[in-house]
Amino acid sequence: MLPKWTTRDCEIYPIREGKSFSGYSFLIQQNSNYMLIDTGRKKSREMLLHKIEKILGPNNLAGIILTHSHIDHAENTAWFKKKFRCPVIIHQSEAEYLKKGLNPLKGGTNPMVRFLIKTLGKTIQAKYEFDGVTPDLLVDQRLDLKTMGINGYIIHTPGHTPGSMSVIIEDEVAIIGDALIKLLKWPIFPPFSENKKTMTESLAKLIDTGAEIFLPSHGREIKRKMMVKYYHKQKQDH
Ligand SMILES: [Zn+2]
What we know:
Layout: E1 5-6, E2 11-16, E3 24-30, E4 33-37, H1 45-56, E5 63-65, H2 71-74, H3 77-84, E6 88-91, H4 95-100, H5 111-127, E7 137-139, E8 142-144, E9 152-156, E10 165-169, E11 173-175, H6 196-208, E12 213-215, E13 222-223, H7 224-237
Bound molecules: zinc ion.
């Protein structure tokens, strides 16, 4: 289980969705300002809401950021938006997916997954449709969160999906969605990803932020040294 992270002025609360391989949402706090990153699966929404409300106390969310529109990150967005009446932020290239409640699904990082997506992609997409919602703020390359009371910014880190984004808090901690996963000792690219080369370029962008800790949605934190090592290995492979 991930611990809570503290930067100079912010707290980063991992909100765990379930046991073992299921993912994390994150709640960022600076003073009485809070933002939620990713919204989890429908089956866990009451539990997630309970955990979030416990941390929020009398405060409200200033916004919901989606690292991308895969169902395990976005299924509760419509529901949470209604509950908290706050803006939803997503990359511009995934706005249509979110409106329709669709998963971006292309590519694959290995031949087996590529074959699966090619043959069953449409079926998988249909099986995992979710309640769509119109986003309020669209990101292109970068969005500063200062106006929402958080010392941080969002950057576009595509490759897993075309509109994947990461959130950098005080140049110390990066919340990276599915840019990498780390369920075992070493991080890996998630197999259901669109473009390995673009993912590798996004790792360079993440390293350039100067962050020391990278938090994926699935698994444990990745320290800077390991991130740099993984990046160089991927770069050699292409
Ligand atoms: Zn994903």
